[in-house]
């Protein structure tokens, strides 16, 4: 997850109340200038130093300087240096974000941006800490096929867009969560192709982007506590039995002050139409049912669109300044079907 906000000492670690230890935050941007505008976001872990770091940034240094923001990323529970949280739920991670923001003195409100599984977590933040948010960008979010209120035909359509092996892996995570580790490590049946980085899940654009994004040398650092404490628990929570769904959320910015800024008080939902990892149909349906969500569908993009050339600028400027500030020359401008 990434948090953009006030000044942070990047070499210090944060401690959760319960008391878990969170990996040292890492950030980009001018920390003093960031006092004016605070922006948090999400991803599995903070970015390590080294080759390829700049390419994976949601908010490049130049853009952070231009907008006067500071982006911070941290290790979610079980990833890299953050302690595992065996009892974590879809609510606990949202409370972790709020507590981290308080520990780092990011201020009363901040922005969030979450990608993939982090995108699903954004719905939890809108549910449990809406009073702390200035705006949210949800990028290619994972969806739960058992969310309450989700029509069976919509869920079924999205379900069968998965590979059969992934249908089984997700089914086990939902119905038999205690069996998730075994299912994804046994050799009798094919396990999750997402965890295995199956190239069959890459769209044409994703294949081109993979050279820039994929095969990261620091992957062992991310999963150093074992796949069960990070990836498997992500599945158990993300595809678990929720008592609510995004369809039941109300606009958290309906009564936002006009002085918050032109780009503030918006929820932006982005999805690639050719996403073979996370079916776009769930995002389409949710956006139709929640008119306060600003939906951007990229017709030629797959799952990795956030790291496509120029997309970081488009996403962040849309979140902070509003869509009117987007350049008309963008290679893949937002498109709503």
Automatic annotation (TrEMBL):
Segments traversing the membrane: none
InterPro entries (alphabetical): AB_hydrolase_1 (IPR000073), AB_hydrolase_fold (IPR029058)
Recorded name of the encoding gene: LOC100280362
Full protein name: AB hydrolase-1 domain-containing protein
Species per Swiss-Prot/TrEMBL record: Zea mays
Biased composition (Low complexity): 1-17
Region (Disordered): 1-54
Domain AB hydrolase-1: 71-305
Pfam families reported in the protein's UniProt record: Abhydrolase_1 (PF00561)
């Amino acid at each position: 997850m990434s948090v953009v906000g006030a000044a942070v000492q990047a070499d210090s670690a944060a401690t959760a109340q319960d008391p878990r230890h969170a990996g040292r935050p890492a950030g980009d941007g001018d920390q003093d200038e960031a006092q004016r505008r605070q922006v948090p976001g999400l991803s599995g872990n903070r970015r390590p130093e080294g080759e390829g770091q700049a390419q994976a940034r949601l908010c490049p240094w130049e853009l952070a300087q231009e907008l006067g923001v500071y982006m911070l990323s941290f290790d979610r529970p079980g990833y890299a240096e953050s302690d595992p949280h065996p009892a974590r739920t879809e609510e606990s991670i949202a409370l972790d974000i709020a507590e981290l923001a308080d520990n780092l003195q990011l201020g009363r409100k901040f922005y969030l941006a979450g990608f993939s599984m982090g995108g699903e977590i954004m719905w939890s933040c809108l549910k449990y800490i809406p009073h702390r948010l200035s705006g949210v960008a949800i990028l290619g979010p994972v969806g739960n096929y058992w969310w309450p209120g989700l029509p069976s035909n919509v869920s079924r359509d999205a379900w069968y867009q998965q590979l059969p092996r992934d249908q089984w892996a997700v089914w086990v995570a939902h119905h038999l969560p205690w069996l998730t580790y075994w299912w994804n490590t046994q050799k009798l049946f094919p396990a999750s192709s997402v965890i295995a980085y199956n190239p069959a899940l890459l769209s044409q654009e994703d294949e081109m982007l993979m050279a820039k994004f994929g095969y990261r040398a620091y992957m062992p650092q991310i999963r150093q506590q074992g796949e069960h404490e990070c990836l498997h628990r992500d599945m158990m929570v993300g595809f678990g039995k929720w008592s609510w769904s995004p369809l039941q959320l109300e606009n958290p910015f309906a009564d936002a002050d006009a002085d918050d800024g032109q780009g503030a008080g918006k929820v932006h939902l982005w999805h690639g139409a050719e996403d073979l990892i996370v079916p776009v149909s769930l995002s389409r349906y949710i956006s139709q049912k929640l008119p306060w969500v600003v939906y951007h569908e990229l017709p030629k993009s797959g799952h990795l669109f956030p790291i496509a050339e120029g997309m970081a600028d488009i996403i962040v400027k849309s979140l902070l300044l509003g869509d009117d500030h987007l350049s008309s020359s963008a290679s893949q401008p937002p498109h709503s079907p």
